[in-house]
Amino acid sequence: MNEGKIENVNTSGTIHSEFQDVGGLIGYNESGGEVTISQSAANVTGSHYVGGLIGSNRENVSYSYATGDVASDGDAGGLIGNNNDGSVSYVYATGDVTSDGDAGGLIGLNNIPVSFAYATGEVEGVMVGG
User: Which of 7, 44, 73, 119 sees the fewest Cβ atoms within 10 Å?
Assistant: First the structure.
């Protein structure tokens, strides 16, 4: 769980968990946590709320990206698995996303506007978005 500022951090490799809130950089970005100018090239798998950069997010994410593939039994996104009230801008994701739940090339489940963002990977899931 992150409640501070993460800046200029890069990760790679493979991350596998049988639990939820799994990300290439952060599992859970709590209120008060901030991620900027960071990237992950990790391939990530988990049970629910799985993202190439962040599993679950509740705070600001900017100028960051993810390039690894993401797989989940639940909601999954190329960048963020579940974005709940977090500001997301100037981001992108290029990995493929496979999910048995909601899946998005950028964000699996989202409830707030996202700006200056794109995703290019292939997406498979129950409810699918770019």
Answer: 7
Take residue 125 and report the two structure tokens written for it.
Answer: 């899931």
Q: What averages of pLDDT result for each successive group of 10 residues across the chain (130 residues)?
A: 94 96 97 96 97 97 98 97 95 97 96 96 89
Residue identified by tokens 């679950």 is: 56
Tally of domains within the chain: 1
Contacts of 14 (CB under 8 A, 6+ apart): 42, 43, 44
DSSP state of 13: S
Q: How many CA atoms lie within 13 A of 10 on its CB side?
A: 2
Which pair of tokens denotes residue 80? 């963020």
The secondary structure of 25-55 as a DSSP string is SEEEE-TT-EEES-EE--EEEESEEEESSEE
- Start-to-end CA distance of the chain, whole Å, equals 27
